[in-house]
Design brief:
The structure holds two protein chains of two kinds.
Chain A: H1 15-22, H2 28-31, E1 35-39, H3 43-55, E2 58-62, E3 80-81, H4 93-103, H5 110-130, E4 155-156, H6 162-180, E5 183-186, E6 189-197, E7 200-208, E8 214-218, E9 221-224, H7 245-252, E10 257-258, E11 263-269, E12 292-296, H8 299-306, E13 320-321, H9 323-327, H10 337-349, E14 361-364, H11 366-379, H12 387-413, E15 422-431, E16 434-435, E17 448-450, H13 468-488, H14 502-520, H15 527-541, H16 548-568, H17 580-604, H18 632-635, E18 637-642, E19 651-656
Parallel strand pairs in A: 1-2, 1-9, 2-5, 9-17
Antiparallel strand pairs in A: 3-4, 6-7, 7-8, 10-16, 10-18, 11-15, 12-13, 12-14, 14-15, 18-19
Chain B: E1 3-9, E2 18-24, H1 33-46, E3 69-70, E4 73-74, E5 96-100, E6 109-111, E7 114-115, H2 118-125, H3 148-158, H4 165-169, H5 176-187, H6 196-209, H7 220-224, H8 232-247
Parallel strand pairs in B: 1-5
Antiparallel strand pairs in B: 1-2, 3-4, 3-5, 6-7
Helix pairs in contact in B: 2-6, 3-5, 5-6, 5-8, 6-8
Classes of the chains: A alpha+beta, B alpha+beta.
Chain lengths: 670, 248
């Protein structure tokens, strides 16, 4: 099947408006007869469910948590971008579009990104109207801060809990619809497969996680909003339950999976401490506004620190290597995430890492304390303040900006980050790749949509900070509600979709058979055993830096782990009760397939771009020596994989990317 | 360190349930409490026993899913954190740790340490929102200046993660800190004023219907709240409720 992105004709600035003016609409009376299933209730799914219900459709929403408000969007800390230009620093829709395409290393679809920028401002309006308590200045207007990879301040925030506040906002909109009966909420339910009737997505099979009951749900369209697949690494900043099952199941039913190798390793996470570690914790990128990243300049100092013989505060200013400021003077500590992560790895691989494992760098706030302290002293008219007074005043400002993050750090590491620099190291955080969708956010299966992090479309090979929240809410509040209407306008006479059909029988049987297999397998090793092994292969061979030899080996190793998993996995308990190990088994089975496709995609893409760094593709000389080398002539396309049984047999379809409005350039943050 | 765990095991909502003893060894002080529970569960799975079911998800203190009552305290002995942020350095080698689910009539046990907190969701559905159309056709965000003070106070209330520690800590199983926080967020903002009276009346009515107890101002909820939600929110809710009823 040839890929058709269905991007409307016309100038980029007019595409979305023209599109909206010309699509088919569903009359309000008919919407009452149309059902939509939304799987996943984070920012994308939650906002979509609320908006679709507001429009009048009957929505069935599914979450594996006990409430939509617990989806992992809640953990997003730093903020949400919008091209409001409230700061008057020259921001515009075009600049947000440009920054996002450039930040994504020219591997995203221009028309989707422009639309994202275009609706970004409206997201803020909607959220404020819902009562989201964004940070404000003393004049009562909204405050902004700056994030990596851009030269303006366009990030709106609510302390270090922006994701939480936006999700509570979307959930409040859902609650209004739940109360009206327009959203039927299925908490503690997990989608285990999609049901197609006549080639169209017409329902899902879900498991009630409390009773173990397998349920059939039908609808005229199905929306997947289940987030990314970062937990393929076992350790990531994702929630423990975050999984790729819905996305992978629809892939196996015909939805192409795009750019799996585009995965973001976030530079500022708390380093790991031992093998028992269950997850990694992010420290918001916003900290890079005020923190300076460094390692010791002398290898002997680094060794002494690793052995616990020296403290960071004992190292003189001239013996510190602020390597981001050194390598990238224009952007300094605010280079995009992929660049910052690789730079940290480079220093640690060279032996300059700073904790016992040698895998950490410092994020130091000392100069911010001083800078803010001096400003505060001036504001409060304190004459000749002592150094201690200045530091104290400055710490107060930092506390008001990032207090919760500092507290979180102190609880985990048991060190006070006001007194000694934080230690950070990169960790898997976000997946730019995902289910392939066209301009309508429809997958290659008719009537099956995919939104938010679960799709691939807007961030290319690297996502800029504070853009995930923007994309999730843009898709849910402002894009999908239009595009899905155009599709559903053909369904006004269809009537209710029955669930007592052979199509539902068949898929339900597949689901039940798989559950029975796990319960009766009587293996010897736990699900986590296999998940951890998969994660290690992914991190070591398909992590921040990749090469053909390791990727080939990774594919074989993952396949071997998968085969062993199916032979030897042990799931205690029964199918018809709450069974956490059974839930995990299904998810890890899917990660074991996805991981191999991920490695295959990384192997196929022999260029370095964004979060995907191939050691074979670096600049050999000139100012950019050693930096990632993109290859636009051969790889300016989206890799969309078609499922053919084994992941290794997946067939590649290419969506060529055209850049009409932005000139393809090497990203330079120097 | 080596520990003895006394854990509440209950097969399902119908089962009577009981405390069961377990031993775990070689626990690192750098582990989080839930990582210690993972070690126990791995041990149980390997010996063919059913692992202990407990709610958890983000493991960074924000989703509000985790909910253990540890040694008689919601979220354990440390302050200002959730169970997933509790670290084993708070315990000593040889300790016996008692782990129970939230205990409240309105939070029935689903399995082991997992309870049903749907009562909180129904309270929010009774009015915890602003009735603005979810269509984006609203006014520009900056056309409504809000004093920094009010916005910050609303934010403080809005940081509630709805975990239920307040209910579990209260001798009356009162949900007033939770409901107070939700009412306050909107009461403090101009957007929430239009429906303020109906909101507080409906949410309080639903709270009573769910079977939560009343507030007797012991302040235990505030002490155990992982997000530091202040008792002021209960006072504000009471004020809002009174004035809503007086105005009719």
């Amino acid at each position: 099947m040839a890929l058709d992105s269905k991007v409307p004709e016309g100038p980029i600035k007019d595409k979305w408006t023209t599109y909206k003016d010309n699509i088919n609409l569903v009359n309000p009376a008919n919407k009452r007869h149309i059902d939509i299933i939304v799987v996943g209730t984070g920012l994308a799914g939650g906002s979509a469910a609320a908006t679709l219900a507001e429009l009048g459709y009957n929505v069935k929403a599914f979450a594996y948590q006990d409430s939509p408000r617990r989806a992992h969007s809640i953990a997003a800390q730093g903020g949400i971008n919008a091209a409001k230009n409230y700061m008057g620093d020259g921001d515009s829709n075009y600049r947000l579009f440009y920054d996002t395409v450039k930040g994504g290393d020219y591997r995203s679809r221009e028309a989707n990104v422009y639309r994202l920028a275009e609706v970004s401002g409206n997201i803020i309006d909607q959220c404020v109207a819902q009562g989201v308590p964004f940070a404000r200045d003393y004049g009562g207007l909204l405050d902004n801060r700056s994030f990596g990879g851009v030269l303006v301040s366009r990030t709106f925030y609510a302390k270090g809990q922006t994701g939480q506040q936006l999700l509570l906002g979307a959930y409040s909109a859902m609650n209004r619809q739940i109360a009206r009966g327009k959203i039927e909420m299925f908490n503690r339910h997990e989608m285990l497969d999609v049901v197609k009737v006549g080639g169209k997505a017409r329902g899902i099979i879900a498991r009630n996680l409390i009773t173990g009951e397998i349920e059939r749900h039908s609808a005229h369209a199905v929306v997947i909003a289940t987030g990314g697949y970062g937990n393929v690494y076992f350790l990531s900043t994702n929630a423990m339950g975050s999984n790729a099952t819905a996305a992978w199941k629809i892939h196996k039913k015909g939805a192409y999976f795009a750019n799996p190798c585009f995965t973001q390793i976030h530079p500022t996470c708390i380093p790991r401490s031992g093998d028992y570690q269950s997850k990694l914790t992010l420290m918001s990128e916003s900290l890079r506004n005020d923190g300076r990243i460094w390692v010791p300049a002398k290898i002997e100092d680094a060794k002494a620190i690793q052995q616990g013989k020296l403290k960071p505060t004992q190292i003189a200013e001239e013996d510190r290597d602020y390597y981001l400021e050194r390598r990238y003077p224009a952007f300094g500590n605010l280079v995009p995430r992929d660049v910052a992560s690789r730079a940290a790895k480079e220093r640690c691989d060279a032996g300059f890492g700073v904790n016992a494992t040698g895998e950490a760098v410092y994020l130091d706030f000392a100069s911010a304390f001083e800078r803010y302290g001096k400003e505060q002293a001036k504001i409060h008219g304190i004459k000749n303040p002592s150094k201690e007074e200045i530091i104290k005043l400055g710490q107060g400002i930092i506390e008001s900006k990032y207090g919760n993050l500092f507290q979180m750090y102190e609880k985990i590491i048991a060190e006070n980050p006001y007194e000694t620099p934080m230690m950070i190291y990169p960790a898997t955080h976000y997946t730019m790749g995902g289910v392939w969708v066209d301009y309508n956010l429809m997958t290659t299966v008719e009537g099956l949509y995919c939104i938010g992090e679960a799709n691939f479309s807007d961030h290319g090979a690297n996502r800029l900070g504070a853009s995930a929240l923007m994309q999730g809410l843009a898709d849910g509040y402002f894009v999908l509600p239009y595009t899905i209407g155009d599709y559903l306008s053909n369904d006004i006479r269809t009537g209710k979709i029955p669930t007592d059909t052979p199509e539902f029988d068949e898929v339900e049987k597949e689901v039940k058979d798989r559950i029975d297999f796990f319960i009766n397998n009587n293996g010897t090793k736990s699900v986590d055993h296999f998940h951890k092994r998969l994660g290690k292969v992914m991190w070591d061979k398909v992590g921040m830096s990749r090469n053909a030899k390791d990727l080939t080996a990774a594919m074989a190793e993952i396949k071997a782990i998968r085969e062993e998993f199916w032979k030897d996995v042990k799931v205690p308990g029964t199918a018809d009760e709450m069974n956490v190990e059974l839930e995990k088994a299904g998810r890890v089975a899917d990660f074991l397939e996805l991981g191999e496709l991920f490695a295959k995609d990384a192997l196929e893409r022999n260029e370095s771009c964004g979060g995907h760094f191939r050691e074979e593709s670096v600049e050999l000389d000139g100012e950019q020596k050693g930096e990632a080398k993109r290859n636009d002539e051969e790889y300016a396309f989206v890799s969309a994989w078609e499922y053919k049984g084994e992941p290794a047999d997946a067939v590649l379809h290419k969506e060529e990317l055209e850049f009409k409005d932005i000139e393809l350039k090497q990203r330079s943050y120097k | 360190m080596n520990l003895t765990l006394k854990i509440w095991r209950q097969k399902d909502s119908q089962d009577k349930g009981q405390m069961v003893d377990y031993k775990v060894t070689d626990i690192s002080e750098h582990m989080s409490f839930l990582e210690m529970m993972d070690v126990l569960n791995e041990q149980l799975v390997n010996t063919g026993e059913e692992p202990v079911a407990f709610d958890h998800d983000c493991r960074e203190g924000i989703c509000g899913m985790c909910s253990l009552y540890i040694n008689g305290e919601a979220h354990g002995p440390d302050r200002g954190i959730t169970t997933c942020q509790l670290h084993m350095r708070m315990f000593n080698d040889g300790d016996t740790i008692t782990i129970e689910p939230w205990r409240a009539a309105a939070f029935p046990v689903i399995k082991d340490l997992i309870v049903d907190r749907m009562a909180f969701e129904r309270i929010q559905q009774a009015g915890g929102y602003i009735s603005v159309n979810t269509s984006g056709n609203t006014q520009d965000a900056n056309s409504l200046p809000i004093s920094k003070h009010a916005a910050d106070e609303a934010m403080d209330a809005a940081t509630c993660i709805g975990c239920g520690a307040c209910v579990a800590s209260c001798k009356n199983s009162s949900a007033m800190l939770f409901v107070g926080a939700k009412v306050s967020q909107y009461a403090l903002l101009p957007q929430g004023q239009v429906e303020a009276a109906d909101r507080v009346k409906n949410m309080v009515a639903q709270m009573d219907l769910e079977g939560f107890g009343n507030c007797t101002n012991t302040g235990a909820c505030e002490v155990e709240c992982p997000k530091g939600i202040s008792l002021e929110n209960i006072a504000r809710m009471n004020r809002e409720f009174m004035s809503a009823n007086i105005k009719g």
